[in-house]
Amino acid sequence: MTIFEAYNSTKKQLEAAGLEDYVFEAKQIIKHITGLSNTEILMRYTTPLTLYQQNNLTAIIKQRIARYPLQYIFGSWGFYGRNYKVGPGVLTPRADTETVIDVALKYLKDKSAPEILDLCSGSGCIGITLAAECSSSRVTLVEKYEEALRYARENSLLNGTENVTCLQGDIYESVAADKKYDLIVSNPPYIPADEMETVSPETKYEPETALYGGEDGLTFYRAITQNYKNSLKKGGMMLFEVGIGESEAVCKILEISGFENIGCEKDLNGIQRVVFGTVKNI
Ligand SMILES: C[S@@+](CC[C@H](N)C(=O)[O-])C[C@H]1O[C@@H](n2cnc3c(N)ncnc32)[C@H](O)[C@@H]1O
After folding, report:
1. Which architecture, in CATH terms, is 76-278?
2. Residue whose CA is closest, atom 27 of ligand 1?
3. Ligand 1 centroid to 170 CA: how many Å?
4. What's the CA-to-centroid distance between 48 and ligand 1, angstroms?
5. Is the CB of 189 under 6 A from ligand 1?
6. pLDDT tens digits for 71-119?
7. CA distance 185 to 141
8. pTM over 0.70
């Protein structure tokens, strides 16, 4: 079977299994099993796959038909132009979360040596990206679960961010709240109880502890705002990723807590995805 035949066959099988992004996924899978770039694939599309590559392809297609996440199969995924190790026990970085980075970098633009706290850090994709993009910053990651924190440590090494400190801790116990930060950022678990059953089959393989945000999905926003508001420097920013339809309620949480300059930002799909506010600058 040639590379071209393998690509077509993969596409067909994924489409028949009802996978929405079957074209994108087929390309990614062929790149993964051959180790070739897009251009190399175009130049060598008549090259036959080795037996090892064919067996690997068959196994991957089988896993995808069972809706095992492509990110877990590959063991790593791209986020804001860098690679992050992922696997069972950690949420895979989402493209939507890149909006959090855009808003954070805009805010950090004029700050020298900013202190940043990333709560509920998972793979570390938010904090590590900020540490890499803003090399004068010092970034603290807080994650409750060891399995996820292991990925964050590995990802920090992989991306060479020596300005990152990884802490295991619970945001409900105000871990790391004893310092003052320019920016506190979090993409916490935010799925409400009534939506937990309707998440995609792939998301069901991800840890429930990374997804469930309490009965109304807002429990973490209330706790983080309450426990960490006093950990911001004057004029410091609290910045959240929020779930679909949660932006108004999260703005309200910030407003009730006395934040000002409250605002929202849409992701690339036009969904209100980010909510932020600053503490008074006096
Ligand atoms: C939605 S995931 C976000 C991960 C990462 N920030 C990202 O954007 O991909 C939420 C993370 O919060 C962690 N978490 C859940 N409860 C926590 C708690 N009480 N304290 C700290 N982290 C917690 C989960 O393990 C998970 O890694």
Report:
1. 3-Layer(aba) Sandwich (3.40)
2. 122
3. 10
4. 43
5. yes
6. 999 999 999 999 999 999 999 999 999 999 999 999 999 999 999 999 9
7. 10
8. yes
